[in-house]
Design a protein that fits this description.
Radius of gyration: 18 Å
Distance between the termini: 64 Å
Largest sheet: 7 strands, mixed
Structural class: alpha/beta
CATH topology: Rossmann fold
Strand content: 15-25%
Shape: globular
Number of domains: 1
Helix content: 25-40%
CATH class: Alpha Beta
CATH superfamily: Vaccinia Virus protein VP39
Length: 259
């Protein structure tokens, strides 16, 4: 870890952000709303609540400034969560970003995310990967074997959520690998500026529901966080509707074969 740049905090008038360099923000926290999801892709990532609202066990690879972890801890009291972070220097900044202390339903552990997923005996309803260092996403978190291990670490109806750089040269390759591991039961949604893409991949039933992705407030989410997430969820619902329409077109398309 000593060969990688030191993570550091940048202070603004109303916010605090985590960086490895000035070229990219790893995480951002509003000082008056420390549990809010400031970056658009983090709001998209919470779209799993549209697809698996009853998920009660969650594993996350990558802590960063803890934005998603804090949001889940505050607003989803029935969900237990383990966060695996490889860099102890990032974990050391958890208090600066008001990441809650470990308790009965939340814990942060230092470890290699790929190794954790490959060796864990636990099975999770939800698995989230949002792990970047100064060089981008670690190679070990983008291999076919890793995505196969993610599939295996899920419960029968589990969901995999990963944040990818949309402009990365191997972005399409990673999406293809996820699709191969999950039998093409995937949905890709870009954030507003197109810099990040969140990929949802389902185990078990198809990702796209029969209704095509109707926008509705998840029963497990209160009014305050729903207001925060509704815009991102609306874009996910539109993406689900487009996916459903394509599925229907494929089902009813006339055969190209000749007698």
């Amino acid at each position: 870890m000593d060969e990688t740049p030191e993570p550091y905090i940048r202070e603004e008038l109303d916010a605090r952000s985590l960086h490895f360099s000035m070229s990219a923000i790893q995480s951002r926290m509003h000082l008056l709303r420390p549990d809010a999801l400031e970056l658009d892709y983090t709001q998209l990532a919470m779209g799993w609540l549209m697809l698996r609202p009853a998920a009660s066990t969650l594993a996350m690879i990558g802590l960063g400034g803890g934005s998603i972890a804090k949001f889940c801890h505050r607003h989803l009291p029935r969900t237990s969560m383990v966060v695996v972070e490889i860099d102890p220097r990032v974990i050391a900044l958890r208090e600066a970003f008001q990441v809650p202390a470990d308790d009965a339903r939340f814990r942060v552990v230092e470890g290699d995310g790929a190794q954790f997923i490959a060796t864990t005996d636990e099975r999770f309803d939800l698995l989230m990967v949002d792990a970047f260092d100064a060089d981008g996403m670690p190679a070990a978190l983008g291999t076919p074997r890793f995505y196969d291990d993610c599939l295996d670490a899920l419960t029968a109806d589990g969901l995999f959520v990963v944040n990818l750089h949309a402009g990365h040269p191997q972005h399409a390759l990673h999406v293809d690998r996820i699709g191969r591991s999950f039998g093409q039961r995937i949905l890709r949604v870009e954030d507003r500026d197109g810099s990040n893409a969140v990929v949802f991949a389902a185990k078990g039933d198809l990702l796209v529901p029969a209704g095509g992705g109707t926008l509705r407030q998840p029963a497990t989410l209160a009014a305050e966080p729903w207001k925060e997430l509704r815009g991102a969820f609306s874009r996910i619902a539109s993406a689900l509707q487009r996916e459903h329409a394509r599925d229907q077109a494929n089902v009813f398309a006339p055969s190209s074969s000749r007698p």
